[in-house]
Design a protein that fits this description.
Helices cover about 40% and strands about 20% of the residues. It has about 260 residues and is α/β, with parallel strands linked by helices. Strands 1, 2, 3, 4, 5, 6, 7, 8 and 9 form a nine-stranded mixed beta sheet that branches. Helix 1 (about 20-30) packs parallel to helix 2. The protein is globular and about 55 Å long. The model has no long low-confidence stretch (mean pLDDT about 90).
Length: about 260
C-alpha cells in the first residue's frame, strides 16, 4: 500500500444544524473509514440542541469545524469546501452515513480512471433508527439525461475531483434544494461522470425533518430554473417529468412516510 502522503487527500464536508439525533452516526461513519488520508470538516449553523457538544467530542480528529449562524445548508457546504485542501471532494449531510470502504473504493476508481471527473455508487434509504427501507434509484446518467431531469445521482455516494470544483464551483447559494443537481449539471459539462452499480457506498436517512419529505415541493421548480438558465424550454422532457411528479407527489410522500413510521 502506498504511504499515506502519496494517496490522494479526500476532503469531506458535513453541513449541520440541530441534527443531534443523527449527527454522531454521520461523524462516526466518516471517521471509521479505512482510507487513511481523509480531512473531515464540519460546518454547524449555530445549533442549540447539543450538536456542538457532539462535535467537540471528536474535535481532535477533525481538520476544521465551526459553529456559527450561517445562510443555510448550501452556504455551509461552500464554507467547508473553502477550507478544504483535498484532491477529491464529497459532502455528507448530518443525518446520512457512509458504509465501510466507501471512500477507499471511490478513490481507487477515480485513480484508475483519470478521465472520470465524478464517480458515484448506490445508496440505501434508511429510517430514523438506521434500518434499510429501500434503495435510491441510481443509474448511469449524462449531461443530456440530467437536462431532461434524469438525475439518478445519490449525493451521499458522489465523489469528484477538486480541479473540476475549481472550474465550476462553488454551489449556487440561491438554491435551497437543487444545489447538488446544479453541481452535477455543471460537472457533466466539463467531465465524464460514472456510476458504479452494486456498490452501496452510503445511506440516505428519511425522517420527518428530511428535506426530501419536508420541502419536496421546492425541488422541481429549482431544477426547472436551472433548465431554463441553460437554454431549456417548456416543451422539454423535464417539464413532463415535473408535471407528473407534482401530480404524484402526495402519493410518493405518503408512501415514504409509511416506510419510516
Amino acid at each position: 500500500m502506498a504511504a499515506v502522503d502519496q494517496q490522494p487527500l479526500v476532503s469531506i464536508v458535513t453541513p449541520s444544524f440541530n441534527q443531534a439525533n443523527y449527527l454522531e452516526a454521520t461523524i462516526r461513519s466518516v471517521l471509521r473509514q479505512e482510507y487513511p488520508n481523509i480531512e473531515y470538516l464540519i460546518v454547524d449553523g449555530g445549533s442549540t440542541d447539543g450538536s456542538v457538544e457532539i462535535i467537540q467530542r471528536y474535535a481532535d480528529r477533525l481538520a476544521w469545524w465551526t459553529s456559527e449562524p450561517d445562510a443555510g445548508q448550501t452556504a455551509a457546504i461552500n464554507k467547508g469546501f473553502a477550507h478544504a485542501k483535498g484532491e477529491i471532494l464529497a459532502y455528507i449531510n448530518s443525518d446520512d452515513t457512509y458504509n465501510p470502504g466507501a471512500v477507499a473504493a471511490a478513490v481507487e476508481f477515480l485513480t484508475q480512471n483519470p478521465v472520470v471527473g465524478l464517480a458515484y455508487g448506490d445508496t440505501d434509504f434508511i429510517d430514523a433508527q438506521g434500518h434499510v427501507i429501500g434503495q435510491f434509484n441510481a443509474q448511469q446518467t449524462s449531461l443530456e439525461r440530467l437536462r431532461r431531469g434524469g438525475v439518478y445521482i445519490p449525493q451521499q455516494a458522489a465523489f469528484w475531483r477538486v480541479d473540476l470544483w475549481q472550474q465550476v464551483g462553488p454551489l449556487d447559494e440561491s438554491f435551497y434544494f437543487a444545489m447538488d443537481y446544479d453541481l452535477w449539471v455543471r460537472l457533466a459539462e466539463v467531465a465524464e461522470i460514472r456510476y458504479l452499480p452494486g456498490r452501496v457506498w452510503a445511506n440516505f436517512r428519511l425522517h420527518d425533518d428530511t428535506k426530501t419529505i419536508a420541502a419536496d415541493e421546492r425541488c422541481w421548480p429549482e431544477m426547472l430554473r436551472i433548465h431554463r438558465r441553460d437554454g431549456g424550454n417548456w416543451f422539454s422532457m423535464i417539464y413532463l417529468r415535473y408535471f407528473t411528479r407534482r401530480a404524484l407527489a402526495p402519493v410518493i410522500n405518503w408512501r415514504r412516510k409509511r416506510k419510516f413510521r
